Amino acid sequence: MPPVGPPPAPAAVYRALPGSIWALGLVAMLMDMSSELVHSLLPILMTTVLGASMVAIGTIEGIAEAAAAVTKVFSGALSDHFRKRKLLVLLGYGLSAITKPVFPLAATIGWVFAARFADRIGKGIRGAPRDALVADLVPPQLRGAAYGLRQALDSAGAVAGPLLAVALMAWLANDIKAALWAAVVPAFVAVALLATAVREPESPPAPPGSRSRPVFAGAGRLSPRYWLIVALGAVFTLARFSEAFLILRARDVGLAIGYVPVILIVMNVVYTAFAYPAGIAADRLSPRALLVPGLGVLVAADLLLAIAASPQVAFMGAALWGLHMAITQGLLSKLVADASPADLRGTAFGIFNLVSGGALLLASLVAGALWSAFGPPATFIAGGAFAAAAAAGLIFYRPGARIREPR
């Protein structure tokens, strides 16, 4: 591992990041292109073709993401225990790839649930080992930039997927199932690129006797600062429910069915544009200096989505949603990496994502129930209120040393 030092100038960061970081980013971009093509059409498939209710959609989204979070705990801990991360990352991406043909073949909501569940299990298997692998590949002073780059490339795929969905829906006369077949190719290309272009660094020596201990035995060594970051991640997730509700909001304000994925394009263009600069900023600024504005942007996004009566206003809300994601997501990953020992990094990311996944399940269930009972504005007003409360908590929380980056 290169020595710790001051962060390089932004112009030098591209050259400083190793090739495997770029390869991981391209893998994420291709898989997200595939996944977001599916996700941008799936809520419409479930409501217009398969007849699912809003509560059912919230339940499916929440359970699927929670399953991913639970899986991350085990895959992250196993990657620490066996000192291998790439194999689990490859397994996770492979499982997600083989689910993609199931969506266009789905005849009932049960098929969609099974495929979505398996896809998210794949995400869970790869998530924590991949995030730990990013930290393994770069020195601490470049972690924010590395996570920001991966998020930016991931989001570029999330732009390309819905763009492709819009083009296919226009070309195929709104045949959703035919359009979903296009998601298969980039998913399998991502798996091939991961297998050939990402090189796992040599693992540091395992602590004496660690192989004979239970897989989760080391979790007790995680610091109080780490657990504070876990709690912070859960609060952020509670304030931001599944993006499926953005798609449904676009349809609700009058966007034609073939153009509904545009709302994800808008969100992810902003996410892509700002994720890497935000990652560089995370290497230079205190977490509070980014987290509080990030929550403020989410409040504004929710308010715009609540009052939206036209697609244009909904697009403005989605753009701010993407800006919130860019500001906060890479930073939270950096904080987890900084607060955890190298030999427990997979476990740390797994626990973090487990707690965040439970929060997402709760948030999505509440969002679906509010939508069904009181209408779309209530869902977004509740999200904005929670984000505002979280921002106030960060502003008035005074033991600031506990949420600052480690020296």
Domain module count:
1
Classification by helices and strands? mainly alpha
Reported for the largest beta sheet, the result is: none
Question: Helicity, in percent?
Answer: over 70%
Q: How far from one another are the termini? A: 17 Å
Order of helices and strands: HHHHHHHHHHHHHHHH
Mean pLDDT across every amino acid position: 83
Q: Quote the beta fraction.
A: under 5%
Apparent shape: globular
Text of the CATH class = Mainly Alpha
User: What would you report as the Rg, rounded to the nearest angstrom?
Assistant: 20 Å
In CATH, the architecture is Up-down Bundle
Describe the structure.
The chain is mainly α and 407 residues long. It has 16 helices and no strands. The radius of gyration is 20 Å and the shape is globular. The protein starts with 9 loop residues before the first helix and ends in an 11-residue tail after the last helix. The N terminus and C terminus are likely disordered.
Q: What can be said about this structure in brief?
A:
With 407 residues, the chain is mostly helical.
SSE arrangement:
Blueprint: H1 10-16, H2 19-49, H3 54-81, H4 86-99, H5 102-105, H6 109-137, H7 143-171, H8 176-180, H9 184-197, H10 224-238, H11 244-252, H12 262-282, H13 287-307, H14 311-338, H15 345-374, H16 376-396
Helix pairs in contact: 2-6, 2-7, 2-9, 2-11, 3-6, 3-15, 4-6, 4-9, 6-15, 7-12, 7-14, 10-15, 12-14, 13-14, 13-16, 15-16
Comma- or semicolon-separated keywords:
disordered N terminus; 0% strand; mainly alpha; 407 residues; Growth Hormone, Chain: A
